[in-house]
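Bifunctional uridylyltransferase/uridylyl-removing enzyme, pasting as requested.
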Amino acid sequence: MNVSFRALEPQGIPVTIDRASLDAELDRLATEFKGDLQGRDVAVKTLLKAALAHGRNAARERLDKNNDGRICAQDISNQMDEVIRALHRYVLTHIHPPVANPAPSERLEVIAVGGYGRGMLAPGSDIDLLFLFPNKPTPWGDAVIEAMLYVLWDLGLKIGHAARGLDECIKLARADITIRTAILEARRICGDEGLADMLAHRFDKEVAHGTALEFVTAKLAERDERYKRTDTSRYVVEPNVKEGKGGLRDLHTLFWIAKYVYGVRDVSDLVEASLFTREELKTFIKAEDFLWAVRCHLHFVTNRAEDRLSFEYQPEIAAKLGYQVHPGQQAVERFMKHYFLVAKDVGDLTAIVCAAMEQRHAKRPPKLDRLFSRWSRSRRRALPKTPDFRIENERLTVVDDHVFVRDPVNLIRFFQVADREDVALHPDAMHLITRSLKLIDRDLRDNAEANRLFLEILTSRNAPETVLRRMNETGVLGRFIPDFGKVVAMMQFNMYHHYTVDEHLIRSVGILAEMDAGTLKDEHPLSAEVLPTIAQRTALYVATLLHDVAKGRPEDHSIAGAKIMRRLGPRLGLSAADTETASWLIEHHLLMSNTAQSRDISDRKTIEAFAATVQTLERLKMLLVLTVSDVKAVGPGVWNGWKGQLFRTLYWETELVLTGGHSAADRNDRVRMAKQETRDALSADWKESEIDSYLGRHYAPYWLKVDPERRVAHARFLQQAENEDKSVATMFTSDAFRGVTEITVLAQDHPRLLAVIAGACAATGANIVDAYINTTTDGLALDSIFIDRAYDENEDENRRAQRVATTIERALRGELWLTDAMQKKAEQRSRRTKAFDIEPQIVVTNDWSDRYTVIEISGLDRPGLLYDLTSTVSQLNLNIASAHVVTFGEKAVDTFYVTDLTGYKITSEVRQATIRRELLAVFDPANG
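Structure tokens follow.
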């Protein structure tokens, strides 16, 4: 290789800092403040700060005007160069001038390293400097460096610096890959010429020579570790523009490797090195320009070195980049789709370089072959069944560059063979596939063999998720199923979904395949039990892959998706029955999740309405499995055991209805059985009269709703409270499997009870996910509140639960003023939710329950929302029988089953309108 350190040419960029004028003004200040060192220092810093601010403002104005990210980054770097050069000249002229005949050791050169060395700086980036000496730092050199650094620090710059001699630089570069990379990017700024060239020569000879494999291996390992920190997927909806997968650091890593191994000096040299075609070079430059534009805008908007493109900044940057609203898609969603397509391009470019390196080093002389032995050992294996492909170095590749032109079905067959042989894909073959996408036309989409192979991939018992992701990365999946292609890289601007739509769908298939293989039996016992009994397995897999395929359209995506499925099913080779079933699943894929989480599933009418839609046990099984796959694939932390328990309960209750159960007689029998179970459990230490009295304290819904273990715990809890003469009491139980902690509250019943409990939970930061309201026949409330688990260890979670329970008791006894506590929480409201605009909706209906009026409230979530809603409900003189609280990212959906104070439904339209009006007012910012 041949490393060259050189000054970056301005490339025609207006620097906006006039060096001649700056030097002249610094000279003037030195003369004017002669004898007033403090005044001089203040004046110099004020001048340089103004020069930098002027340059930054000009760079920002140009960025806002033309959105050229690379120009902006280069401009800011050039401005910094000019300030450092002016400062260096000023220090040497007026503060620490060198002696008349300095010794050879008194030479100093200022060099930009790291990101600054590339000649590109984001507005908030660190300034990394190397002060280079021939041997080691000298007293005069230390004085010069100190004078420069104090000024730079006082300018508010983040300076990373090192003062070293040549020998130390080489020694450290040999030992530390990070330092080696920084020196690889070195660029001379000012000072004594020649030292940088000497460093380059010695770096090439003593560090880089013969260490290509070491460097490449270290940088790729560093990349993998970085992915772990920022999430391995390039489709995380709040990506890190610098460090995330498909971000700027990936482009930098790509160039570092090419520079170290091939000696390229500039991006354009990648073509001459045969690493890129000219089209691929254009893709590299466009990707880099876009990512720099996003990063520079992000730094300017936040006024700091912020590289995470979080929700609160995405809309503003989308507007700056000129994205417009499109039917079915917000401007911010179109911007983020572009971002993820660029991230995909970066991944493709990385694969291309790795493939080119592999091919080149496989043909190098023996010495290099040993360096790249893991790439150069060419172990080939023919595949008699598919002669167009072969296994090479344990990866699937093509026998020549014409296999897809000869038979376009090979574009699908290639992935089916990879799945069948359980091998990775060769980068060369992947590259050839991306260049052959135009062969995927209507004829291939209608080809029966191609569709058969695709279904074989999708329903494979090996690793369909991995193969589908490779198909998606090469563009084959989106071309073969154009409707899927429309959701590739599409993000949904909400805090609920962690991935783009296409990544979510592929992950859903992966989870389904894991459950199908039985590897998730402990986590999902019911799904594992019903999956082997599902007859329409192919329909289930197709519906799972395509359940969100119509996202981003004006029409409801479930309905539109069902229409797509009815059109696509016959083309894929599905039977009429499988097509209809898959369409039904897509249309109703949210039904089970919404019903289980936002309805009272102990209410008979809820179950009957759900069963009437599902109709068959086969559909119920498939809907359960699809729901679990869908929810788990949303993102980390979305699934928990509590949701699993809700889905299982809904399944079991619906199964009874579909198989003829749940008659009125059955209901009475279940109440009698529940009471008998409780009697048997208490008989060992309770008198018969005590048991009879206790069993008479609960209404029928309690016995149907509460499981046996909790019924016994409640009985002992009430007995202990009475023995201790407590009017307010709490108990708690943490449940690691379900991911919730249950807090049971005993108090005198009154309409504001749930509001007080909700306020106390909010004041302690506890998130309520469900609430069961039980009132005894003697006027006590026995309420069960389920909050999200915060700690993995039971000991930690129990301490936290104790704090929450104590706060609830204090609030109920009037010892805690909730308004003050809630005000503190309101001040801590997350800035992220301010980026979202959700129109609140209030539904008041008597159709969802035989006994209660149901109020469903949806809107933008915030700390204390449940407290405000429950307070308003109680002020409306309504009794809450049960509450069901669901949060989908920034969106809250809270459902209350209520009656008036006499126990009847709310039938007056006037009163219903009042309820809607008062609850809508809760979302008015003026009332927040």
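Note for the archive: The longest helix spans residues 331-362.
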